[in-house]
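Example 250, ligand IPE.
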Amino acid sequence: MVRPDDLDPQRLPSHVAIVMDGNGRWAQQRKKPRIYGHKVGADSVRDIVQSSREIGIGHLTLYAFSAENWQRPAQEVSGLMNILKSYLVSELEEMEKNQIRLRCIGDIDRLPDGVRKVLLNSIERTADNTALTLNLALSYGARDEICRAARLLAQRCRDGELAVDSIDQQMIAGHLYTAGQPDPDLLIRTGGERRLSNFLLWQASYAEIYFTDIMWPDFRRDAYLQAIQDFQQRERRFGKTGDQVRRPPT
Ligand code: IPE
Ligand code: IPE
Ligand code: MG
């Protein structure tokens, strides 16, 4: 078991992103409806948000519903939306108390009115909090996000605000939903699949990726600390040699 004291406070990821996968299979393994897995998954969300806050993670992005997930059976989609809404309602007080700033990345116009309303209210109420930024990826697709940035930039060029040649990496990053936030250092996917599923394609270009077979409803504090400990043992080279990053020239 990993304890928070076992972690090196100097080498914490500033931004952790998680693909919370495996709810449906977890429930099916227990002969329960898939939605039961999503409900228990919401308890994991609570646990991981709280643990992030305690460890001192500054930014946490949770993939809760993808742009592609709209294709699921209507009953599962509406069940997920209801769980999301009650999660937001029940957690607002806790977020306010714990200095958690809620943000959303994704196409929120596609969300049902009721969900959008509570979401926008929670975002507004927590906007000035400074301890942990919690990004919920809802109706999110990375390719859509990049297309949206391209459209915003094209519009600014057309309006004469921007020269085409001035478009660089920083400017593209500044037009993504995550503008102003650090790139994820650690990207975790639970549930055993080893793919990104259209998550943070731009932002994760140098993220350390951690795959675990643990299904999301079982992914709690201890498994999370283990992932962070694994991250702390990696050598991030960013294209340089090992020697360069271990002994930077003085
Ligand atoms: C992740 O769990 C939650 C969402 C995608 C909303 P899944 O529902 O994808 O669970 P599996 O992958 O079918 O087990
Ligand atoms: C990715 O999981 C999206 C979320 C966790 C919200 P999926 O279960 O939808 O991914 P695929 O379809 O198996 O790639
Ligand atoms: Mg899945």
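Summary: The two ends are 38 Å apart (CA to CA).
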